[in-house]
Amino acid sequence: EGGGEEGFGIGHKEATRRVCREVEEKGGKPYYIPAGASDHELGGLGFVDCMVEIAGQERELGIFFDTVIVCSVTGSSHAGLIVGAVAEGRGRKVIGIDASGKPEETKEQVTRIARNTAKLLDPDLEIPDSAIILDDRFHEGVYGVPGPSTIKAMQLAARTDAVITDPVYEGKSMAGMIQLIREGTIGPGSNVLYVHLGGQPALNAYSSYFETESAKDVQ
Questions:
Q1: Distance in angstroms (rounded) separating the CA atoms of residues 185 and 65
Q2: 131-187, pLDDT tens digit by residue?
Q3: pTM (2 decimals)?
């Protein structure tokens, strides 16, 4: 309650900290979870497990994904996948696509979460700078607002493979993956895993971006 609005940022929210203090003052014991559960001591472990699960499915299917694409904002999904990839030691590349519009902050946080998570697993596990890849070309300048590349990627994914993405996160990472393939950064013969983090319900709040296209389809 009160205190005014905080602008978008990937860091800790003063409003949340204030509520925790109020609970403590009343004798309660709050458990503080920051945005996305990312900048939390345990925040990166879930997506380390995700990489373990991916590796298990690869063995069953007889395939290896040499490149993994994931949206990156608060950082724990991206960081956890990096740690899992480095720990397994198979040369897998994890490419984060920034959707925060604040790529410097995001990369710093991804780096910190990845290295802290690695130490929880193995004090000797080092995360090199080369493993932390964040492409900042597709955020369209601001968090939460799709741009032309976002909309085009969403439409292409939906129309060709019935993959539904959202305008905030996955539409931007899909735009990144498409461009990386088109420009040859991801070359022919690569096995690419696109990590879809959800977000489709957000489409309801962005329907105006697609009204023109819907009208054309009806005509």
A1: 15
A2: 999 999 999 999 999 999 999 999 999 999 999 999 999 999 999 999 999 999 999
A3: 0.86
**Residues making up the chain, counted from first to last:** 219
pLDDT, tens only, 78-111: 999 999 999 999 999 999 999 999 999 999 999 9
CA-angle at 198, arms to 108 and 209, nearest 5°: 95
CB atoms within 10 A of CB 104: 11
Residue (of 119, 50, 37) closest to 81 by Cα position: 50
- Are 83 and 50 in contact by the 8 Å Cβ rule? The answer is no
Q: Has residue 213 got a pLDDT over 60?
A: no
- What is the rounded CA–CA span in Å between residue 165 and residue 151? 10
DSSP letter at 8 equals P
Predicted confidence at residue 5, as pLDDT, reads 57
Rounded-to-integer distance, Cα 143 and Cα 130, Å: 26
Burial of 54 (0-12, 13-18, 19+ CB in 10 A): buried
Asked if 69 contacts 195 with a C-beta cutoff of 8 angstroms, the reply is yes
How many angstroms separate the CA atoms of 174 and 149, rounded? 9
For 14, 73, 101, the CA distances from 142, given in Å and listed in that order, are 21, 11, 4
For position 129, what pLDDT does the model report?
98
Backbone phi and psi for residue 134, each to the nearest 5 degrees, phi listed first: -135, 115
Task: State how far the Cα of 100 lies from the Cα of 3, in Å rounded to an integer.
Answer: 24
